Amino acid sequence: MTVNEQVLSYPIPSDAALDPPAEWAELRGTCPVAHVKLPSGDQARLLTRYEDVKEVLADPRFTRQLNAPDAARLSAEGGGVFSSEFAAIIPDGGEEHQHWRRLVGKWFTAKRMSALRPKMAQIAEELIDDMVERGAPGDLKAALGFPLPVYVICDMLGVPAEDRDRFSYWSDTLLNLTRYGKDEIEAAQAAFFEYMSGHVAAKRAEPGDDLLSELIAAGGPEDGGLSDLQILVTGMALLVAGHETTANMIGKMVSMLLADRTHWERLLAEPSLIRTTVEETLRLDANSGFGLPRYLKEETEVSGTHLPKGTTVICSMAAANRDDSAFDAAAEMDLSRSPNAHLAFGAGAHSCLGQSLARTELQVVLEVLLRKLPTLELAVPVAELERVEGLAVGGLRTVPVRW
């Protein structure tokens, strides 16, 4: 049976931690709008071609909110970042969404990120020193990949970094596919909501130099600002997005560069390639997680396939980023690839708000690692690296390294 005729289970499993499932290439070639069954048991359509994914992500007829009665549920437990009531609080489209992005986006400009670089580099150096002091082998994800983005986003939001283990657990429950049960998810989300409510109240009483204090100072909706509830949910969303994806990407990026150590050697010889290398590892990341689900509010056509109103589609940016019609030698890692119009951060009005933050963190980590640990190597064969399972984000469970 060809992929055209079957309903594939999604996410499509891959045996190798850093390599894509073989089905992606077949789907792009012969079945770009595939039928898939989600962990909830609901059906959706999967897009794997670059042009289709880019087009749908930029099309306002496809909404990111999956709270319609006929929208596919990603997880049997419901809730989660796409379909919980929290998802509906941040405006989804039009002028309201643009207004929200303008207010929050001021904190994520390239200029602000440049100003943060020295602090990020200092945090990275201290974390690497601590890892070296504990001795090899170390887990690069636990020692550096996870704490660095958490310290940075906590600092931006003015929340205490020592609460990071709780944030990590709350984030995981919001990103659940198959790992947690309904009661546990609801309890965790209530605790997260209560924590952030207390934090916003404290910022209202005693503002600091942070994003939440600035959103509060902008006033309520009548003054051109956000409602209390929108500020609170924005804080929760940024805490989840600001650490989970980048923490995972740091581990994957370093693993990809060490899996074939000629890449690492080339960077040691040509550190000017760090910026394009970060973009190339983002493009080639075959373990980026679920992709972006979208719900179709009116019928349309994608790649010659009719999609009725009420269809849920999954945009696989990772599969699209390996499309030979969009990238020369798409399966090859080219550290100097430029331009590199990958879709790792999405596209259109909902492209990732924090992409300049993520890029800066990844560049700084690479700069500091190359300088401090030039002899870095994986402490296990690539085949032994294991994927994070059961969540909507992709990552590696551990990244064992020595130096």
TrEMBL record:
<dbReference type="GO" id="GO:0020037">
    <property type="term" value="F:heme binding"/>
</dbReference>
<keyword id="KW-0503">Monooxygenase</keyword>
<dbReference type="Pfam" id="PF00067">
    <property type="entry name" value="p450"/>
</dbReference>
<dbReference type="InterPro" id="IPR017972">
    <property type="entry name" value="Cyt_P450_CS"/>
</dbReference>
<comment type="similarity">
    <text>Belongs to the cytochrome P450 family.</text>
</comment>
<keyword id="KW-0349">Heme</keyword>
<protein>
    <submittedName>
        <fullName>Cytochrome P450</fullName>
    </submittedName>
</protein>
<keyword id="KW-0560">Oxidoreductase</keyword>
<keyword id="KW-0408">Iron</keyword>
<keyword id="KW-0479">Metal-binding</keyword>
<dbReference type="GO" id="GO:0016705">
    <property type="term" value="F:oxidoreductase activity, acting on paired donors, with incorporation or reduction of molecular oxygen"/>
</dbReference>
<dbReference type="InterPro" id="IPR036396">
    <property type="entry name" value="Cyt_P450_sf"/>
</dbReference>
<dbReference type="InterPro" id="IPR001128">
    <property type="entry name" value="Cyt_P450"/>
</dbReference>
<dbReference type="GO" id="GO:0004497">
    <property type="term" value="F:monooxygenase activity"/>
</dbReference>
<dbReference type="InterPro" id="IPR002397">
    <property type="entry name" value="Cyt_P450_B"/>
</dbReference>
<dbReference type="GO" id="GO:0005506">
    <property type="term" value="F:iron ion binding"/>
</dbReference>
